[in-house]
Design goal:
Blueprint: H1 3-23, H2 26-39, H3 44-68, H4 72-80, H5 83-114, H6 121-142, H7 145-170, H8 174-182, H9 192-201, H10 212-218, H11 227-252, H12 262-276, H13 278-314, H14 335-346, H15 356-368, H16 370-381, H17 385-388, H18 396-418
Helix pairs in contact: 1-7, 1-11, 1-13, 2-9, 2-11, 2-12, 3-8, 3-9, 3-11, 3-16, 3-18, 5-6, 5-12, 5-13, 5-15, 6-13, 6-14, 7-11, 7-13, 12-13, 13-14, 16-18
Length: 421
């Protein structure tokens, strides 16, 4: 394959690669392992459902931006009120601390398992976590979008190949896997519904789906004519993430694991070593490291877009002759973007001394709120022909899918959130 063809492939799939990189992290590794350990392959269908729901939501975000020329945040503030702007900022700050601490800790744990040069695992987590956070910040600070896109593409390819390959090595009952994938049911076990919901919600990231709009802008997609290209790379991206989630459940099926959070993945690697040898253990840890570090770099690159967009709105810089298409690109060399990059790479270090399980729970609770908020907003924004245009408004399939997201959340998710702490 020539260099030009490789460049063209990245241009076609780049935003989807970025989405996959940020969408698969420590929570997905641990969530898939927990589900496989407790429920087995009977709930593989939940991974497909979760990927399908996230596809509908992300496609709706892209459709809004391509049809109106404004980001989703701009549209929400303009049409739903400025209260959305300040509520979003509060949510962004809390979510950034939770997900930042979780990713830094996961990178530290995975790296110490690969290179145990510290006698104390806690010191290893601190040292490696800080080093990975700093490395991620430097990559984003000095690297261009295209460089980050290609770098994360390599890590995503590595993590997917390793995890899927490990699942194939471990094997399993083919008929049970097929039934679990295509026949939806919840096993009659304690908290089975909660684990199934967590598996469904863990596919494809949370707040980072909003960043897809900034990535397609970086790739030069500006009009509704580019929507079909977005649908293709979203389908491939969520397909890859679904395969990753299914593989994690298959790997952990039937295992008894004692770890928690990121340490669960290390414990899983030890059990794999007993089954497929030390080489298999090492490869799985490399794949796990690639998953969490690609997620860290992706989040460090993506989330500052959101703050910079908020800051531009706050400063009133969304002014142009055509007020219906008044968006301007986020400057990744600007103070607001780089300031938040420094903040998200340094402030969450304060969360390292806290119990990883507590930080992960905070992250999961706030992450769970993203999908219903986005679903409601997309039902309103993309449902008004006067705002998005008659040809781009929600079809019946998108409307039904968004309503299902809300039903699942208010039926199962909301009661769980009430008793989370």
């Amino acid at each position: 394959m020539t260099r030009r063809r490789i460049s063209h492939t990245f241009a076609m799939l780049g935003p989807g690669i970025m989405l996959a990189a940020t969408g698969v992290g420590a929570g997905d590794l641990a969530g898939g392992a927990f589900a496989g350990m407790h429920l087995g392959v009977a709930v593989l269908w939940a991974v497909l459902f979760g990927a399908a729901f996230k596809f509908v939501i992300t496609e709706g975000l892209a459709r809004w931006q391509l049809a109106t020329g404004t980001t989703f945040l701009e549209g929400a503030v303009r049409h739903l009120g400025k209260g959305v702007q300040w509520g979003f900022l509060l949510y962004l700050l809390v979510w950034s601390f939770g997900v930042g601490s979780s990713l830094i800790s996961a990178c530290g744990v995975a790296s110490h398992a690969l290179v145990p040069i510290f006698s104390d695992a806690v010191h290893g987590k601190f040292a490696f976590g800080f080093a990975h956070s700093l490395a991620g910040a430097l990559l984003v600070w000095y690297g261009t979008y295209r460089f980050i896109e290609r770098f994360l593409g390599i890590l995503v390819g590595l993590m997917v190949l390793v995890v899927i390959g490990t699942a194939l090595l471990v094997g399993g009952d083919l008929m049970a896997i097929l039934k679990g994938t295509f026949l939806p049911r919840v096993p009659d076990k304690p908290e089975a519904t909660a684990w199934t919901l967590a598996l469904m919600g863990g596919v494809g990231g949370t707040l980072t789906v909003l960043c897809y709009g900034y990535w397609i802008r970086e790739s030069g997609r500006q009009s509704i004519a580019d929507l079909s290209q977005c649908r293709w790379d979203l389908a491939i991206s969520y397909g890859v993430m679904a395969l990753f989630g299914i593989s994690m459940v298959m790997i952990a099926d039937g295992m008894t694991l004692s770890g928690k959070g990121a340490t669960l993945v290390v414990d899983l690697a030890e059990r794999l070593g007993e089954q497929v040898g030390s080489g298999g253990r090492l490869l799985f840890l490399v794949g796990a490291w690639a998953a969490v570090f690609s997620s860290l770099v992706g989040v460090w690159q993506a989330v500052p877009y959101l703050f910079a967009d908020f800051w531009n709105l706050f400063r009133g810089r969304r002014q142009a002759q055509d007020q219906s298409r008044c968006s301007v690109a986020v400057n990744t060399r600007g103070r607001s973007y780089r300031g938040y990059l420094l903040a998200i790479s340094l402030v969450p270090l304060l969360g390292l001394p806290f119990d990883f399980q507590l930080v992960q729970k905070l992250n999961s609770v706030f992450g769970a709120l993203v999908m219903p908020m986005l679903a409601i907003s997309l039902l309103v924004l993309n449902g008004r022909a006067g705002w998005i245009g008659d040809r781009s408004r929600n079809g019946w399939l998108a409307t039904v899918a968004l309503c299902l997201v809300l039903v699942i959340f208010f039926w199962i998710g909301l009661p769980r959130l009430r008793t989370a702490f």
